[in-house]
Each structure stands twice: as structure tokens, then as C-alpha cells.
Automatic annotation (TrEMBL):
Catalytic activities: glycerol + ATP = sn-glycerol 3-phosphate + ADP + H(+)
Enzyme Commission number(s) of this protein: 2.7.1.30
Gene3D superfamilies linked to this entry: 3.30.420.40
Single GO MF descriptor: glycerol kinase activity
Keyword Electron transport: no
InterPro entries found in the cross-reference section: ATPase_NBD (IPR043129), Carb_kinase_FGGY (IPR000577), Carb_kinase_FGGY_CS (IPR018483), FGGY_C (IPR018485), FGGY_N (IPR018484), GK1-3_metazoan-type (IPR042018), Glycerol_kin (IPR005999)
Any Pfam family: FGGY_N
Superkingdom of origin: Eukaryota
CDD domains named among the record's database cross-references: ASKHA_NBD_FGGY_GK1-3-like (cd07792)
Protein name (database record): glycerol kinase
Keyword Transferase: yes
Domain Carbohydrate kinase FGGY C-terminal, residue spans: 272-470
Domain Carbohydrate kinase FGGY N-terminal as annotated: residue spans: 10-263
Amino acid sequence: MAKAEDVFVGSIDQGTTSSRFIIYDRHSRPIGSHQAEFTQFYPEAGWVEHDPVEILESVKVCMAKALDKATAAGYNVDNGLKAIGLTNQRETTLVWSKSTGFPLHHAIVWMDARTSSICRKLEKELSGGRTHFVDTCGLPISTYFSAVKLIWLMENVEAVRESIKKEDALFGTIDTWLIWNLTGGVNGGLHVTDVSNASRTMLMNLKTLDWDKPTLETLGIPAQILPKIVSNSEVIGKISQGWPITGVPISGCLGDQHAAMLGQACRKGEAKSTYGTGAFILLNTGEEVVQSKHGLLTTLAFKLGPDAPTNYALEGSIAIAGAAVQWLRDSLGIISSAQEIEKLASQVQSTGGVYFVPAFNGLFAPWWRDDARGVCIGITRFTSKAHIARAVLESMCFQVKDVLDSMHKDAVEKGEVKNEKGEFLLRVDGGATVNNLLMQIQADLLGSPVVRPADIETTALGAAYAAGLAVGIWSKDEIFDSGERVKSATTFYPVLEEELRKKKVESWCKAVSRTFDLADLSL
């Protein structure tokens, strides 16, 4: 029998701008990792695409290099790797050929807004308008979700229509595409998705955890192109030949935000915010489906086994968070690396009255305005690039506050977990949380503490936990016993005066209102 130190779990973390593979030991410590960026395609204003084949290659490279690094560090990974977990950018949609294995179009990314006319048409035609499917799937009609992206592909790509007619088409989000290829592709690859990713398509019934037939009929989506839905923690299949690892079971799969919830060990009443390309705040509502009355999404948290109870969540999704920092770097050249923004923004004590709202492709929760566009207001001759940089950081934190305010209103009757001082603790993770100034601004604008774990890459860890749980490496008690984690976490406490906080929030709301109805501005 292998010693505990010889047991490892791998985690594929496929994000919006890069792929990673991380190998963890039995004590949840990373022992080898590699990350690779891939191309972002912007064919038109508001359109965002990925090349699915390039994503596959990036995952393959990451697996090989992470294995090499762990082996070079003296770990017997070849014999000790017992399971693979997978986590991915959600909602991103593609259709491929079952017989050739080739994508029939680039993947349409979650933040892509090309489907706004489809959404408007559905809102007008359906009796329930924008909220027609909310009771079934928990989601409003929005450009964000996979169903409308799939409709666009069916309406606009001849190869997709023909492939569906020939019954050769397979639909999937990125998890489905990866698993199909990892388990054999055209040679018997498994066409599956998990409950968390399926919950983001607009097509899954939140209560039955199966594809909703009336929704499919209403939208004209053929059931035969959809994958089988499985839980987040079970053996799905084994990795086939042609990959750096073979024969190892894939036994965990979650959408990235659900994986981060598990990595943060969020129990009922606890919330986390992940700061990446976008920002995503989820509150675990336990085994109860809570419908939001304040602009949030009702979604799945996780289901840790075929027979395990289903945990649900309220979610607030923010389209542009870290992506605004990338915009400063790549489009404006104000900074040359994302890390520079903290130093630049720290050169000033405030934004000097500048407010920046990054509604590049509209606004998600809690506003849901796809007619919004970005604004930067309050600019004077005094304004410097440091003020702009600080306003960009504040924009991330204001958006998170908007979502948490809605979350508190929705959860007030259901209960939130607070500490002994009556404070609601927000757990944070994701690459941007290394920025101490950002975290301090977040605590100041919330007026409550922000807790950053020692390991901020909780998304990959959550996928590893799900995979390890399925094969007996960890128990649920071990995963959710967060006492040790809290001891090693960094907590940011608010220092901003209440009066100033209120004034800043009022100014922010004024700035947000200025973004509405700008989508038709002439180019």
C-alpha cells in the first residue's frame, strides 16, 4: 500500500485566459504546477472567442511540465497519482463533430455579447419575458449563458446545422470538450458534463438536475447533442493514450466558481469572492433553492457524489474585474504588468473624485444591463494615471459590494454565518487577491472583514478535493474542517469612516447610472 506521502491528486484548471495543471500531495500542498496562456480572439466589438484545439494543447503542455517539475523535485508522481480533477471557465460554448473530433466553430466565451438580439427576441416572445426560465433554471435570459450562444451557432454556422441534421454534432462547455478528448475523443470519448456546469447553460432543471424538456422544446435545442449530467465527485472515466498521464481516473469536475467554493470549504451561510478576469461571489444556501429578488442568480453550489445531497447557492457574477487591469496594460499602456497597478495606485490616497465603471460588454449582477458601456467620470486637469489606476481597483470592489448588498437582502431570512462579533466574513481568492491595496479597499467599501487564505488558488484545490473525495483520499470532514486554514489566513479590516463610505457608494451608483443605454453610440 502506498504511503500517504506517495499519494497525489492532479488538478486541471482551465480558465478564461490560461490553463494550469497543479499536483497536490495528501496534505493539499502543491508539489508541481505549470501555467500556459492561450489566444483571445475579438472578431468584432463585444465578441470574444477561443480556439478549442489551442486550449487542448495548452492543457497537454501544462500536464507534461507540471509532472516534470514534481518528478525533478523528487516526488514519485508516476506511481502515486491517484486521481485527476477538472475545473473550467463556465458557460463558454462549443459544438464539434463526433466523427472527426474537430470543432465546428471557435468557442464562444462566457463574456461574449453577440447574442443580445437573440435575448431581446426571446424576452418579447416568451410570456415570462426576461425571467421566463428562472423558476426552472434559476437564471434570467442573458448573453451570459450557454443556451443563447448555442442558438447563435445553430442559426449562424452552416457546419453546425448540417452536423446536427446528420446527428454528428456534440455540444458542450469546456469541461465536456476536455473530458471527451481526455477519455478517447473519436475513439470512445465520454460525452459528459457536471451539475455545476450544466446549471449555467439555462437548460438544466435545478430540482431534477436533468435537462429540462419544456425548455429544450421552447428554444428548439435537440436533446441528442447534449452531454450526460454527472455529480461533481465520482469516477467519470480514465485518461486515454496520447496524454502525458494515462489510466488515471478523472473523478472530479466543477465549474471554476463552484470549485473555489469547495476549495474555500464554504458551508451553508458562508460566501466567497473569486477575483479573476471577472469576479464571482457565491453564498452557499444549503439544500434549499433560494430565488433572488435582488438581481442575483440561483445556481448549484456542488453535489459531492451521485447520492450526496445537493447544495445550492446565490451568485452574483461580475463580467469585468481583473480584465480591467489587463485593459490598462494591453490597450492603454498605463502599466506594463498587472503587478504594477498596486504600486501606481498607492501613489495617491484617493481617486481624486474619479469613478470608473468597466461595463465593456454590459453589466451583469445585480444590474443586468447589456445596453451599458464603460464610463470614466469625474476627470479634471488634476487627474493622473495613478488616480485612474486606483479608480480601476475601486471599481472591482464596488461591484463586489453591489452584489453582496443584494446577497444580504436575499439571505436575511435564510441566515448567514457571522463571527462572534456579528461580522460577515468574505472569503476571497483568485490571482488579483495578492494585491494588498485591493483587499484593503474591499474591506473599506464593505465595512466588514475580508479573509484571504494562504493558498489563493482555491479553484484548482477545489477540483482536487472533489477528485480525491471520490477515490477515498480525503473525507468530507477533512475538506470542510477549515480551522487550520483560518489560522494561516490574512484578514483585512475596514478603516474607512462610515460617512465617507456612504458618500463614495452614492457617487459610485451615480457613475453606474451613467453607463446605461450607451450600446448604440455611433462608432
